[in-house]
């Protein structure tokens, strides 16, 4: 055959590249397995063995391997396989705007910002675009006619390129560019911090146009430490401190207010506010010394509008900040400081740090020495001169680290930060300051945490599902196609090898959905072989010799294979563009798998088969049991279409009825909220756990927050979802929710369980094994992205079918069947949401499943349409109805084999692939079944009826002429 040498050369080159890419993964795994065996489970000994074994090298001539280098280059595993944390950081764009306006106090600006904050909670647009809209509205309402270039808005030294006559449109462009640059700066700072932490194979990416940064850190165990590290702005600020005599009269007044309006504030009227403050126990420059358990109540009181409105003029702009941590000897309490603020809340000294390092004070306590930049040093000198004999507070992200008295002016810009640090805390602070400050505060708007134990279990279940699925495909192919099936298996193995090698070479991350993508791409890869072999069988039954039959089989199948794979590839591309996290991994795996299957199953298999045939050897394409299956099978599909329409109409109406009346059970990535999977050392009844947790999650107004508790997989695991404090994205809010979760589940945990052991389940038989947090804004973005993905997929498939088959009737029939499949799956998830013993949530994974089903279903449809096109050229005497019936019936073998093999593979993953994949695979199971049905009775039938309305037999002739003309042009 032509091109045999070229195809072989490409395969050899690809093979060498993949070997080179996969060797580091094999070598690092080999070293780690040896260390595990030698250490016998002792982590300290394991680390020593790794250090010893890492000195060895493996010289292969073309590549020299040693452990540390191999570890850096090994295939990346996602956190669902390795454990760790995946977060979406959002840079505070209000802070950025405040900085760009030089902290202007203009009332129009402040009102516009406040309105934008509210709008943003329910908007999927960018913050800056919403701000410009709100600014215009406030400007019109107040009739102020302010321009964006006004000195009180953006026309200040911070934006020197803006002049007094710069147009609003130009100012918008400049501001957007500056915000994009600031996000870039934040990205570099975050990446530097992570590098300083020594995390292996982190993945840090910007999300264009959103002010967000995606960070994935597999293998990380100290989650709270990571969250603090990522969100700390490193914006070191120095403030004047107001002391107790100045603040105490307000506290006394507030105590009276509470006795009268406590219910309105959200606390009992008999709350003794002054007692909570414990002012008599103060030994610092703070204004209160509050028990840790009472800090939430004090925050609620001080931040309530009633309390703020009661403030006298001298503390109108005062900021109340907590100390960094309890002082030695005062471990149960936290000091509250009163910081002298102003309307803009801009600190007197707000400068970056040039250098920072760990040091020790006269008493041997750990401190951080730092040197300010030139501007900071100048402002610091002025401030210390002004406050000799008075305290000043050093804060980082609105937390006071120290507030000492100033003994004398400090002209050098060199100062010391103390805060009862541990060595690790001091090192983290040095790393944060050394990496540079963020241009604005950052908050975690989405987070996913997977414990190491769950990661190990995911790898095991993923590998088992892969092995079982692979064996199913191997047995089925050889059983059905005999010798040709063996060549299909060889091609599939090569395809798998190429897939993993290419993923490693492009630095793709392998996730649990990615493993599902590998298995699914294998199932879809056999489709190409099935198409070729079924067509070869047809040619053999026509009396052609084996070589000629294979030649015709490959030639006639090529267009159908290309069309089917391109539509599936379109789906994978849409998944990649609109998906996030693991869904991107699934899309990458599926996309590479589709491309590689085209090469291995079409070109490479052809080379191998014809190499055998040219040597005069035969190659069976059936077995005695399968030779005559589906041969001469003819079904009147078009004649039975009205019955199918009735069945589909009933199923569709029932599905839509459930969708609009019962709705869905949405996951946290669609609704927003926090979700935790908790494991216990004994079986737990979800109803009892739910009753216990309901008492814990009560918001500040005394209202019950939503709490949903379900058994997750085995009876010793629960999935707990709540929207408690979902609008708060701070680490403190996360810790509060985890504390309440622990307290609520304490009756079901071991007696010696602690909050620390509960939060890190790695070494325990109980605790949080995974968690997900999604803010409401991100949830709206995910829902919008999912809707766009579905629409764009349908539009893309419609246009591609129109391009290939030249008639809108084919495109309409195809899209009608896809809509039918989508509605059926949605209906099943609505009807069965409280019935199935596994998660039936509508989330990102579900959207990926829907799109995958669309790709699979259209693949089937294209095969039949391709056969219709072929028969139009060859069997011009057929009526339109006969044309469709013959085309569908002649492809029954291919449709059944692909659907049955794919169904078995998905069923294997569904059973042994782990709880996290069960809902995803259930959607695929429904999709494969109804996708096959809709290909026969919806896509083909709708296309037939539309063509019939355009003139019946005359339409057939015109269609044949159009296809014939297209063929001649090609």
Automatic annotation (TrEMBL):
Superkingdom of the organism of origin: Bacteria
Membrane topology note: Multi-pass membrane protein
Q: Where would I find the Protein translocase subunit SecDF P1 domain in this sequence? A: 186-242
- For this protein, the parts annotated as crossing the membrane are 7-27, 462-479, 486-503, 515-533, 554-579, 585-609, 643-664, 785-803, 810-831, 846-865, 896-914, 920-947
Q: Where does the Protein export membrane protein SecD/SecF C-terminal domain start and stop, copy by copy?
A: 442-606, 761-948
Q: Where in the cell is it found?
A: Cell membrane
Q: Name one GO biological process term.
A: intracellular protein transmembrane transport
Keyword entries, A-Z:
Cell membrane, Membrane, Protein transport, Translocation, Transmembrane, Transmembrane helix, Transport
Start and end residues of each SecDF P1 head subdomain domain = 352-440
- UniProt xrefs under InterPro entries: SecD (IPR005791), SecD/SecF_arch_bac (IPR022813), SecD/SecF_bac (IPR022645), SecD/SecF_CS (IPR022646), SecD_1st (IPR048631), SecD_SecF_C (IPR048634), SecD_SecF_C_bact (IPR055344), SecDF_P1_head (IPR054384)
- GO cellular-component terms in the record? plasma membrane
Primary residence: membrane
Keyword match Protein transport = yes
Q: Where is the signal peptide?
A: none
One MF term in the entry's GO annotations: protein-transporting ATPase activity
Quaternary structure, per UniProt, is: Forms a complex with SecF. Part of the essential Sec protein translocation apparatus which comprises SecA, SecYEG and auxiliary proteins SecDF. Other proteins may also be involved. Forms a complex with SecD. Part of the essential Sec protein translocation apparatus which comprises SecA, SecYEG and auxiliary proteins SecDF. Other proteins may also be involved.
> What does it do?
Part of the Sec protein translocase complex. Interacts with the SecYEG preprotein conducting channel. SecDF uses the proton motive force (PMF) to complete protein translocation after the ATP-dependent function of SecA.
NCBIfam families listed in its UniProt record: 2A0604s01, secD, transloc_SecF
The similarity annotation says: Belongs to the SecD/SecF family. SecF subfamily. Belongs to the SecD/SecF family. SecD subfamily.
- Name of the protein this chain belongs to: Multifunctional fusion protein
UniProt source species? Chryseobacterium lacus
């Amino acid at each position: 055959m032509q091109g045999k040498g070229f195809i072989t050369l490409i395969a050899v080159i690809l093979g060498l590249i993949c070997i080179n890419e996969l060797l580091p993964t094999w070598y690092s795994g080999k070293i780690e397995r040896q260390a595990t065996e030698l250490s016998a489970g002792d982590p300290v000994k394991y680390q020593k063995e790794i250090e010893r074994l890492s000195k060895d090298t493996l010289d292969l001539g073309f590549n020299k391997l040693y452990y540390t280098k191999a570890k850096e280059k090994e295939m990346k595993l996602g956190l669902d396989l390795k454990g760790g944390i995946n977060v979406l950081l959002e840079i505070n764009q209000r802070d950025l705007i405040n900085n760009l306006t030089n902290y202007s106090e203009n009332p129009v600006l402040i009102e516009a910002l406040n309105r934008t904050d509210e709008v943003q909670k329910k908007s999927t647009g960018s913050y800056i675009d919403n701000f410009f809209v709100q600014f215009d509205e406030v400007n019109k309402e107040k009739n102020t006619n302010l321009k964006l270039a006004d000195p009180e808005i953006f026309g200040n030294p911070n934006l020197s390129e803006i002049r007094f006559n710069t147009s609003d449109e130009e100012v918008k462009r400049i501001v957007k560019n500056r915000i994009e640059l600031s996000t870039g700066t934040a990205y570099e700072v975050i990446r530097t911090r992570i590098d300083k932490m020594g995390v292996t194979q982190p993945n840090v990416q910007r999300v264009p146009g959103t002010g967000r940064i995606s960070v994935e850190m597999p293998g990380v165990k100290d989650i709270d430490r990571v969250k603090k590290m990522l969100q700390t702005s490193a914006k070191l600020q120095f403030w004047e401190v107001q002391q107790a005599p100045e603040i105490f009269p307000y506290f006394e007044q507030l105590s009276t207010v509470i006795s009268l309006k406590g219910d309105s504030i959200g606390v009992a009227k008999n709350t003794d506010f002054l007692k909570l403050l414990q002012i008599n126990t103060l030994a610092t420059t703070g204004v209160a010394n509050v028990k840790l358990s009472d800090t939430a109540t004090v925050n609620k009181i001080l931040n309530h509008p009633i309390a703020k409105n009661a403030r006298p003029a001298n503390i109108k702009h005062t900021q109340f900040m907590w100390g960094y941590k309890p002082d030695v000897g005062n471990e149960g309490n936290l000091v509250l400081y009163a910081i002298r603020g102003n309307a803009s809340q801009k600190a007197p000294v707000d400068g970056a740090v040039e250098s920072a390092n760990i040091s020790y004070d006269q008493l041997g306590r750990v401190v951080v020495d730092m040197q300010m930049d030139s501007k900071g040093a100048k402002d610091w000198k002025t401030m210390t001169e002004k406050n000799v004999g008075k305290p000043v507070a050093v804060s980082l992200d609105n937390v006071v680290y120290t507030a000492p008295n100033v003994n004398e002016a400090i002209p050098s810009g060199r100062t010391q930060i103390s805060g009862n640090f541990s060595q690790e805390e001091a090192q983290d602070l040095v790393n944060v300051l050394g990496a540079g400050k963020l241009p604005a505060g950052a908050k975690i708007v989405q987070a996913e945490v997977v414990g190491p134990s769950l990661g190990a279990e995911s790898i095991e279940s993923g590998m088992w599902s892969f092995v079982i699925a692979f064996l199913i495909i191997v047995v089925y192919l050889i059983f059905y196609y005999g010798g040709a099936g063996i060549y299909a298996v060889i091609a599939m193995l090569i395809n798998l090898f190429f897939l993993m090698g290419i993923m490693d070479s492009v630095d793709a991350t392998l996730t649990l959905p990615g493993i599902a993508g590998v298995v699914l791409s294998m199932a879809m890869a056999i489709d190409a072989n099935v198409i070729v072999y079924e067509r070869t069988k047809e040619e053999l039954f026509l009396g052609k010799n084996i070589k000629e039959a294979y030649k015709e089989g490959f030639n006639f199948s090529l267009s159908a294979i290309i069309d089917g794979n391109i539509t599936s590839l379109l789906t994978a591309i849409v998944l990649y563009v609109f998906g996030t996290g693991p869904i991107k991994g699934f899309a990458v795996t599926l996309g590479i798998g589709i491309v590689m299957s085209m090469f291995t199953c079409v070109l490479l298999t052809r080379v191998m088969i014809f190499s055998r045939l040219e040597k005069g050897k035969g190659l069976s394409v059936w077995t005695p049991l399968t030779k005559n299956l589906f041969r001469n099978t003819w079904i009147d599909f078009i004649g039975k279409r009205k019955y199918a329409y009735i069945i589909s109409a009933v199923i569709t109406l029932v599905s839509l009825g459930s969708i609009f009346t019962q709705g869905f059970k949405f996951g946290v990535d669609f609704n927003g909220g926090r979700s935790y999977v908790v494991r216990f050392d004994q079986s737990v009844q979800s109803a009892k756990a739910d009753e216990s947790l309901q008492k814990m999650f009560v918001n500040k107004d005394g209202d019950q927050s939503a709490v949903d508790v379900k058994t997750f997989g085995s009876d010793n695991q629960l999935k707990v979802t709540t929207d408690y404090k979902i609008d708060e994205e701070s680490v403190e809010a996360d810790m509060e929710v985890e504390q309440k979760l622990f307290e609520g589940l304490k009756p079901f945990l071991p007696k010696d369980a602690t909050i620390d052991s509960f939060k890190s389940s790695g070494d325990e038989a109980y605790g949080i094994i995974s968690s997900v947090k999604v803010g409401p804004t991100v949830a709206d973005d995910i829902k919008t992205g999912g809707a766009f993905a579905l629409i764009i997929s349908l539009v893309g498939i419609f246009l591609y079918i129109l391009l290939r088959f030249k008639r809108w009737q084919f495109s309409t029939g195809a899209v009608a069947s896809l809509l039918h499949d989508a509605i059926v799956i949605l209906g099943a998830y609505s009807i069965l949401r409280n019935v199935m013993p596994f998660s039936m949530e509508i989330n990102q994974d579900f959207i990926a499943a829907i799109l995958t089903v669309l790709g699979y279903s259209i693949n089937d449809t294209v095969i039949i349409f391709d056969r219709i096109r072929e028969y139009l050229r060859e069997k011009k005497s057929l009526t339109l109805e006969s044309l469709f019936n013959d085309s569908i019936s002649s492809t029954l073998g291919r449709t059944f084999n692909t659907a049955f093999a794919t169904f078995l593979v998905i069923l294997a993953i569904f059973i042994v692939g782990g709880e996290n994949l069960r809902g995803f695979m259930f959607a695929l199971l429904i999709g494969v079944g109804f996708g096959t049905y809709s290909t026969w009775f919806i896509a083909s039938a709708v296309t037939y009826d539309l063509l019939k309305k355009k003139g019946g037999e005359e339409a057939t002739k015109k269609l044949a002429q159009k296809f014939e003309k297209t063929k001649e042009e090609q």
